[in-house]
Specification:
- The chain is of the alpha+beta class.
- The protein is built from two helices and three strands, in the order ββααβ.
Length: 92
C-alpha cells in the first residue's frame, strides 16, 4: 500500500497568494535558518494532496492600428416591444 505523503502549502500573508507547495521531507531537510527565512511573513498549512491547475489563462496583446475615439455619441437603439403582462382570472 502506498504511503500517504504530507505537503506544506506556503501562503503569503500580505497577498493571500499560494507561493509554493513542498513536501514535509524537503522541509525537514532544511536547516533552522533556512526554515525561518522561508516562512517569514507567510502562513504554512498542512495539506494531503497537491492540486495542479488545469486551466491557464493568458492575456493576448494586440497593437492598435487605428484611432479610437471614446467621446462620440452612440447610435440610439430602438426600444424593443415588451410583451404584455399576463393576467390570471379565477374561474368560479
Amino acid at each position: 500500500m502506498a504511503e500517504k505523503q504530507q505537503f506544506v502549502q506556503i501562503v503569503d500573508t500580505a497577498t493571500g497568494a499560494i507561493e509554493r507547495i513542498t513536501t514535509m521531507t524537503e522541509l525537514d531537510a532544511m536547516s533552522i535558518e533556512e526554515k525561518l527565512a522561508f516562512s517569514k511573513n507567510k502562513t504554512l498549512y498542512l495539506v494531503t494532496h497537491r492540486i495542479e491547475p488545469i486551466v491557464k489563462v493568458t492575456l493576448k496583446r494586440h497593437a492598435i492600428t487605428s484611432k479610437v475615439d471614446f467621446n462620440t455619441p452612440e447610435e440610439e437603439k430602438p426600444e424593443e416591444a415588451k410583451p404584455a403582462a399576463k393576467t390570471t382570472r379565477k374561474k368560479k
